[in-house]
Design goal:
binds iron/sulfur cluster, globular, five-stranded mixed beta barrel, binds 5'-deoxyadenosine, 34% helix, 463 residues
Length: 463
């Protein structure tokens, strides 16, 4: 399914200006404000910018304090059990506030809203609106009506319209969706149930949003999709062709994308990445497991040797490429030997960074039905062993890069190091550095790495 309507207008909003949050405290009354709590992934961060845009279109302004808010929105994550539990504990806090201020409107949005709307209505009857990720176009109307029991907007396959407002988080980098949803149904994953079937946006809609973000001052764009490699726009535009179109947008300094599924990553895409100037030398390629039997049972559609050949093909085209990954330990039935294959894969590939998780049961998925679950203590032990190996690798890779010069896109002062600035390298590593001129925000500067850490570098501007 595709969205075929015209580019979105990209409404401007006060959050695009520096220090906008003060607006709320200085000039607005409590009843004008909304509180928005975003959990989970980059998709949710981008969805929250739509939620913010829609709430601003109602004349509301953001507050960072829930107590001040007329409308409270929790944008939730369901990818693992823990974040889902967090939603219900946060709703406990909201309940107390709502008892004091019954006129407050409570909205639960995101993936938990989609997959657990009945449970939310039952366990948190004070919630006014429950809205899934595909149904945000109905949010403002539902807030205006605000009736009890909660209105549920949870059609997982609704086509997302292009005309939704956006109020971006201020900064130098912006997210733009190329697609919504996922068709892969990996055995462990709740995403296809929470975000519905894949819907590619029309290329001109993506381009229109990128142009608007660049015009608003953003220098770096990350294109988002659950599986960008299966993007299929109008006129047979595939993801590589889309990248070409976006990379030509005047004023765009850097282009990134996430997430690539290894089963659909083509040599053509790697060639395109290597060729396009703004395309950064960073590839996020979730491996999930390094054992073929586990990969098969996960329904991932590739073997470890295929995955490794992709890594080699990418590295041979892009010197200095950083590769990051997602991985899971303790998938049902995973033996010690199979885990050791994952550990070995990490030693062979040497990722720059990895997001490492213990398998978590998601009701409704195929893996949740398995009878050979791995005990919690074993999962914890495997995770700790994998993290220890990966931490050493990340640290060693960054140490070996000390003395090199990196192009850094400056984000602004580093909140944790007074007098220092922070930014990211093209390889998406954090660089904290000293600079006399504080006015480098949004600029590309060359910084020499002086020390390497797990998380990136400290450095200085070369003389
Ligand atoms: N348990 C643990 N981790 C999961 N992920 C997805 N589903 C689960 C699950 N049920 C991880 C995958 C995915 C990342 C976003 O979250 O590694 O790539
Ligand atoms: Fe989940 Fe697999 Fe889709 Fe990624 S590709 S969102 S892991 S089902």
């Amino acid at each position: 399914m595709r969205a075929e309507s015209m580019p979105q207008a990209g409404m401007s909003c006060p959050l695009a200006a520096p220090s906008p949050l003060l607006l709320c405290y200085n000039r607005r009354t409590m009843s004008d404000c909304y509180y928005l709590d975003t959990m989970g992934c980059q998709m949710n961060e981008r969805d929250s910018e739509t939620i913010a845009g829609l709430l601003e279109s109602l004349g509301l302004h953001r507050t960072e304090s829930m107590t001040d808010a007329k409308v409270v929105v929790l944008n939730t994550c369901a990818v693992r059990e823990k974040p889902e539990h967090k939603v219900f504990s946060k709703l406990g806090d909201v309940r107390k506030l709502k008892q004091q201020r019954p006129d407050m409107v409570v909205v639960v949005a995101g993936c938990v809203a989609q997959i657990a709307h009945e449970e939310i209505r039952r366990r948190a009857p004070f919630v006014d609106v429950i809205v899934g990720p595909r149904n945000l176009s109905g949010l403002t109307e539902a807030i205006r009506r605000s009736t009890r029991p909660a209105q549920i907007l949870a059609n997982e396959d609704e086509v997302i319209p292009e005309a939704l407002a956006v109020c971006r988080v201020p900064g130098v980098a912006a997210f733009v969706n190329v697609s919504y949803g996922c068709n892969n149904f990996c055995a462990y994953c709740i995403v296809p149930y929470a975000r519905g079937r894949e819907q590619s946006r029309a290329p001109e809609a993506v381009l229109g949003e990128v142009k608007q973000a660049v015009a608003d001052g953003y220098r770096e764009i990350t294109l988002l999709g659950q599986n960008v490699n299966s993007y299929q726009g109008l006129d047979e535009t595939d993801f590589a062709s889309l990248l070409r179109l976006v990379a030509e947008v005047p004023g765009l300094a850097r282009l990134r994308f996430t997430t690539s599924h290894p089963k659909d990553l083509s040599e053509r895409l790697l060639d395109t990445m290597a060729e396009l100037g703004p395309l950064c030398e960073h590839l996020h390629l979730p491996i999930q497991a390094g054992d073929d039997e586990v990969l098969h049972r996960m329904g991932r559609g590739y073997t470890y040797s295929h995955y490794k050949s992709l890594v080699e093909a990418a590295r041979s085209r892009m010197p200095g490429l950083a590769i990051t990954t997602d991985v899971m330990v303790g998938f049902p039935g995973e033996t010690e030997e199979q885990f050791l294959n994952t550990l070995r894969a990490f030693e062979e590939i040497r990722y720059d960074q990895a997001f490492m998780f213990k398998y978590s049961d998601r009701p409704g998925t195929r893996a949740a039905l398995a009878t050979d679950k791995v005990p919690e203590a074993v999962k914890q032990d495997r995770l700790e062993r994998l993290v220890a190996v990966q931490n050493t690798i990340s640290h060693d890779i960054n140490e070996a890069l000390v003395g090199r010069d990196f192009e850094v896109l400056v984000e602004g002062p580093d909140p944790k190091s007074p007098g220092k600035l922070r930014g990211r390298t093209r390889t998406n590593k954090l660089m904290i550095f000293e600079a006399a001129d504080e006015d480098l925000r949004g600029k590309l500067v060359t910084v020499r790495a002086e020390r390497g850490y797990l998380w990136g570098f400290t450095g200085r501007l070369p003389d």
